[in-house]
């Protein structure tokens, strides 16, 4: 489908480099997936790109649901990004600050979006029509979706350990619902509008994955940017699955879930 070019007029939050009053955006980026899957890391790395602004959990679909206009949503994203950059992009005890890069500001803003993967998936599961409403709200600006996965056993275990939700069975059921929402979203959009990203692949080779993500979003992966981002990525994934006691029934349910969805099929309990 052809997309018409749309110009948006609004201002970036103040910074020590520049103030921009007119921005030509090429795409709008949202995350879908599951809690505790590495969205915060990827969102922060992308926000460090000189031509990208990614807010931290501005919860864009909720704003769309309220009927907010595109420019209002974009301004909310810009202010959120600036505020979180000043706070060091901290989340659950980790700092995702990328020294020397562009978090909270932009050189030539072409991609804007929000990191809120699990909640976005849940809202789409409850109200699939919100996807159409988001597309309509964007007024012709192409939508790009980043689908981030982590081994389901690890995501579920971390959700449970943080008591979100409080019972392991509830965490498994929530993950199932979110997987259904992802599958339904994949079926409703152009295949080229969604990129699957495995958290484990980012950990194994951050530079290569960042280059792939940047290519999908249509921006250059400049060497200095890639090197700075790769420098803050921890080198081994946290296998929180081993901190939880799984019953045989729970283990089987998660393994069956993995088999059900092609985008999870590469995971096992032991990888």
Question: So what's the CATH class?
Answer: Alpha Beta
CATH architecture descriptor: 3-Layer(aba) Sandwich
Low-confidence stretches: 1-5, 15-22
Shape: globular
Physical arrangement of strands within the biggest beta sheet: 4-7-3-8-9
If helices are DSSP runs of H or I spanning 4 or more residues, what is the number of helices? 11
Helix content: 40-55%
Number of strands: 9
- Beta fraction: 5-15%
Our count of domains comes out at: 1
The sequence of SSEs as H and E is: EEEHEHHEEEHHEHHEHHHH
Question: What can be said about the biggest beta sheet?
Answer: 5 strands, parallel
Radius of gyration: 18 Å
The CATH topology label is Rossmann fold
Distance between the termini: 39 Å
Describe this structure in words.
By secondary structure, the protein is of the alpha/beta class. It has one domain: Rossmann fold (3-Layer(aba) Sandwich), CATH 3.40.50. It is built from 11 helices and 9 strands. It has helices spanning 39-47, 60-66, 70-86, 117-126, 129-137, 152-161, 168-188, 199-204, 206-217, 223-230, 248-260, and strands spanning 7-8, 23-24, 27-33, 52-56, 90-91, 94-95, 111-115, 143-149, 194-198. The strands form 3 sheets. Strands 4-7-3-8-9 form a 5-stranded parallel beta sheet. β5 (90-91) and β6 form a beta hairpin. α4 (117-126) crosses α7 (168-188) and α6 (152-161) crosses α7. The longest helix has 21 residues, at 168-188. The relative contact order is 0.17. Residues 1-5 and 15-22 have low confidence and may be disordered.
What topology emerges from the helices and strands here?
Elements: E1 7-8, E2 23-24, E3 27-33, H1 39-47, E4 52-56, H2 60-66, H3 70-86, E5 90-91, E6 94-95, E7 111-115, H4 117-126, H5 129-137, E8 143-149, H6 152-161, H7 168-188, E9 194-198, H8 199-204, H9 206-217, H10 223-230, H11 248-260
Parallel strand pairs: 3-7, 3-8, 4-7, 8-9
Antiparallel strand pairs: 1-2, 5-6
């Amino acid at each position: 489908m052809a997309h018409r070019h749309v110009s948006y007029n609004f201002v970036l939050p103040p910074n020590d480099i520049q103030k921009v009053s007119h921005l030509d955006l090429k795409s709008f980026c949202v995350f879908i997936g599951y809690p505790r899957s590495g969205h915060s890391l990827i969102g922060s790395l992308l926000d460090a790109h000189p031509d990208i602004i990614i807010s931290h959990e501005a919860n864009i679909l909720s704003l769309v649901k309220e009927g907010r206009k595109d420019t209002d949503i974009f301004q909310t994203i810009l202010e959120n990004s600036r505020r979180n950059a000043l706070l060091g992009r901290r989340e659950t005890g980790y700092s995702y600050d990328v020294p020397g890069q562009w978090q909270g500001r932009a050189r030539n803003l072409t991609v804007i979006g929000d990191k809120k993967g699990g909640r976005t998936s849940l809202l789409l599961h409850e109200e699939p029509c919100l996807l159409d409403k988001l597309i309509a709200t964007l007024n012709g600006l192409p939508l790009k979706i980043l689908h981030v996965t982590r081994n389901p056993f690890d995501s579920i275990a971390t959700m449970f350990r943080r008591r979100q939700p409080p019972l392991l069975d509830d965490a498994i059921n929530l993950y199932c619902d979110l997987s259904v929402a992802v599958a339904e979203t994949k079926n409703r959009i152009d295949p080229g509008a969604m990129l699957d990203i495995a958290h484990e692949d980012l950990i194994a080779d951050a530079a290569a994955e960042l280059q792939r993500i940047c290519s999908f979003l249509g921006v250059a992966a400049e060497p200095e940017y890639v090197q700075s981002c790769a420098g803050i990525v921890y080198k081994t994934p946290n296998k929180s699955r081993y901190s939880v006691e799984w019953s045989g029934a729970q283990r089987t349910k998660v393994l069956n879930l993995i088999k059900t969805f092609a985008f999870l099929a590469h995971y096992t309990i032991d990888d």
